[in-house]
UniProtKB/TrEMBL annotation:
This is TIGR04013 family B12-binding domain/radical SAM domain-containing protein. NCBIfam families: B12_SAM_MJ_1487. InterPro entries: BchE-like, CHP04013_B12-bd/rSAM, Cobalamin-bd, Elp3/MiaA/NifB-like_rSAM, rSAM, rSAM_horseshoe, rSAM_sf. Keywords: Iron, Iron-sulfur, Metal-binding, S-adenosyl-L-methionine. It comes from the Archaea.
Length: 437
């Protein structure tokens, strides 16, 4: 009998599950690994019970985001009723953003805090050897207090495959992890820290592997595609981006592969866009549409949310991108609690100004995500006048987005926070103890 690790994920966290499995399965040899997707039909409980009977020890891991909390809580409770000897491990954006609530309200034994590859491997080995599994990189409860053992070093992406190709599971290649922008509404900086990059040859190697398996379209995971290789992830390193695109092109062209750069699940920061870099990018990529993260048409809002660029930067970026044949999807977020009538007026003027270009507006609602400086704030829902304005843009084909669904998510998160299932950053900081290891 071997020890077993069961990783449970949802449709929205499948990339995270793939990346985690790719990092851990090849180096933890004394475990059998299993993957289960949690969906509207729940979990295949009988299958998991059958697996548990074949295991010396069983560890059940969940990687999840905040909107999935009610489902996760029910799933953990159900599994605990059948598997009283299992160790439950939480990871993903929510667990790192709110380790206190994850441990005290959701029924987990330990949280993988931040990046998971090294921490989970050490944790599994510790369990197998009957050692303390509260290894470096975890959060746990000790003497009624939250303890966080934060890692002092970042994961080197080049040490791990970007997906578990041996299982024939693939996803966009993570070429950049972390972000220096530290926007106050976004979890990326606060979970992953400063930006790091997968080396060009490494990216080219796995891209070639993908296309050789029949997957023709190569996409990437990066907070800012044009920030690839630069010290801050914002001001582009022209040579690094150019080398990446050139080597990608050479490595996949014999298979008919196509490069999609600056599109989902990535985007471009407006202050990274310049004539010279877009001119070269146009030569190598196959996408005709890119995403630009504007976030607001109000300079006041951009300053408050720590965006570090201006509305004027967005206008210039759209002009340049259109000049080289790229249509642009412009991200806009509404619902910040400090958003005033003048800010909405400025955003409408901005929409009208760049509406003459080849653009669409991707509309979002502010969600107070755990672990961010805005985790304790409430969403300011739009009035009827603004809702009609957005609806008109959608009707004209100039806007799209799941902003109404995001309003429901924001309401759910606020409700869960008010009900004590989620802890804001202020609450966590008051009763936590952090060690660097």
């Amino acid at each position: 009998m071997r020890d077993c690790f069961i990783l449970i994920f949802s449709k929205d966290s499948k990339y995270s599950a793939n990346i985690l499995l790719a990092g851990v399965e090849p180096i933890v040899n004394n475990y059998a690994f299993y993957l289960f997707q949690l969906d509207s039909h729940g979990l295949p409980i009988n299958n998991i019970i059958d697996i548990s009977r074949k295991c010396k020890k069983i560890v059940i891991g969940f990687t999840f985001m905040t909107p999935q909390l009610p489902i996760i809580k029910n799933a953990v409770g159900l599994l605990r009723s059948y598997l009283d000897n299992a160790i439950f491990v939480a990871g993903g954006p929510h667990a790192s953003g709110d380790p206190l609530g994850t441990l005290t309200k959701l029924g987990f034994d330990v949280v993988v805090f931040g990046e998971g590859e090294e921490t989970l491997a050490e944790l599994l080995n510790a369990i197998s050897c009957n050692n303390d599994f509260r290894v470096c990189g975890t959060a746990f409860i000790e003497d009624d207090r939250l303890v966080i053992r934060r890692r002092s070093r970042y994961v080197d992406l080049n040490l791990y495959a970007p997906f578990p190709y041996w299982r024939n599971r693939f996803n966009p290649i993570e070429i950049m992890r972390g972000c220096s922008s530290a926007c106050y509404f976004c979890q990326v900086t606060y979970v992953f820290g400063r930006p790091r990059y997968r080396d060009v040859d490494n990216v080219a190697e796995y891209s070639k592997l993908m296309v050789s398996r029949g997957l023709k379209d190569i996409r990437f995971i990066a907070p800012n595609s044009l920030g690839y290789g630069s010290p801050d992830g914002i001001k582009p390193d022209f040579n690094a981006v150019l080398l990446l695109l050139q080597k990608l092109h050479r490595s996949i062209r014999e298979y008919g592969g196509r490069i999609f750069f600056g599109t989902f699940p990535s985007e471009l920061r407006p202050d990274s866009v310049s004539d010279d870099i877009i001119r070269e990018m146009k030569r190598y990529v196959n996408n005709s549409r890119v995403i630009v993260g504007a976030q607001s048409g109000s300079n006041r809002i951009l300053k408050i949310i720590h965006r570090k660029h201006s509305v004027e930067d967005v206008v210039v970026a759209v002009e340049i991108l259109n000049r080289y044949g790229f249509a642009v999807d412009v991200d806009l977020i509404f619902g910040f609690p400090f958003e005033e009538e003048d800010d909405l007026t400025d955003t409408i003027k901005f929409i009208q100004e760049i509406g003459k270009f080849n653009v669409r507006f991707h509309i979002h609602t502010f969600i107070p995500l755990p672990g961010t400086p805005y985790s304790d704030l409430n969403t300011k829902f739009l009035d009827e006048k603004m809702r009609k304005t957005i609806a008109k843009l959608i009707g004209l084909g100039k806007a799209y987005g799941e902003w109404c669904e995001q309003e429901k998510i924001a309401k759910l998160i606020i409700e869960l926070r008010n009900g004590g299932l989620i802890y804001g950053l202020r609450s966590i900081s008051r009763i936590s103890k952090v060690y660097v290891c």
